[in-house]
Amino acid sequence: MISPKRVPPAAPRRPTGSMASRLGWRLGGLFVAAFLVAGLLPYINSRNDRTEVTAETLQADMRSLAQSIARESDGRLAVGLPPDIHFAYQVRDEHGAVLAVSPDWEGLHKAAPFASSPELQVTVVSGRVDTASGPLLLDVMLNDNAPTLLDGIVNEWGDEILPLLLPVLAAALLIGVWTIRRSLAPLARVAEAASSITPRETGVRLPGDDLPAELLPLVTAVNDALDRLAEGFRHQREFAADAAHEMRTPLAILSAHIETLPDKAAVASLKQDLAGMRRLVDQMLAVAELDARPLHVGDAVDLAEVAIELATAMAPLCLAQHRDLSVIGGERPVIAHGDSTALRRALRNLVENAIAHTPAQTSIEIHVADATPGRGPRLIVRDAGPGFAPADRARVTQRFYRGRRAKGPGAGLGLAIVERIMTVHGGRLEIGEVPGGGADVALCLPPL
Description:
Strand content: 15-25%
Number of domains: 3
């Protein structure tokens, strides 16, 4: 049978930037474009009125020229205009003779056509005007110093549009970014809730309060998927618990049948295998119970009392296995927060591991350590066995994993159960070694 080709997962793409920043920049660009169009509208609308505007300007200039004409005492005509005026002029009498002219008139007059239609810009205006010196013919023409329409637009932007544009644009950007961030703020709560979902914490759901309408279907779909996953995990735990429970009766019957066998050597060997099977069943039930039953980790527990009670209960087993079991540091109470039943089970698993992996006629010690600065109270189990290989210490808490130095019929669930109990308590399991040989395994609880 040909197995399908496995496609490697695609590498995660790097984030392309914040949604809020992208929306803010685009919103700002939209506002700038809108204001630019609004500012150019006067220029667009004024293109049809340029002839009229220029003619009106020149007519006003002609009136200014007429008012500035006077006769000198010798009878000559004088024009009293400043030198930086924005138009050129020519003054003639009724017969067309030139009486006065601006210095730039001749050069500009040759290049400036008279307007013959409304489509052409009017650059020269002529007319007969009654002045204080009598009727005269006046010719007025815009020169290089005359303000153009572009100059008017620039002045309008500087004087009217920009002072209004900049505050409005800044306020629009700030309000837009603030609105976007407020709208996306619920996503942070959704991400925080999603990060807390684990196979052991399947009851967490993504919050749907105050979410934008576009995101609510996605959150609802994810929560529905989490419901289905939680249901699957529940069925798996129930199956493991039911299977382990149902195995107890056949094992009891098998144990009774083994006692009737005539071969005592075979009976001893079978009993040892049967004990390993019972231990596996008990550990499977312990795993199922840990996944199903909440632990009361806030109760006050005397670790010295837990250690002494366990050592008393396991003393007969240690004597039968030719091991010594002692409690060190149990003379006075050592208080911690935790579930006494779960802590007793964790300590029992450590002691059972020590019994299984240490040679006969050796000692197993349970140390009760009080809290120290920076560290909480601890229960430590030390033995004289082979210890843990350094390469195995990071994996021995995985379910069904057995280290390189493991011996005996164990299934590799004991330390996984211990590590799970310590995680629920907010503590940790530390695995070390005793100088000269042996394991040093500590249940480290958080400080009070």
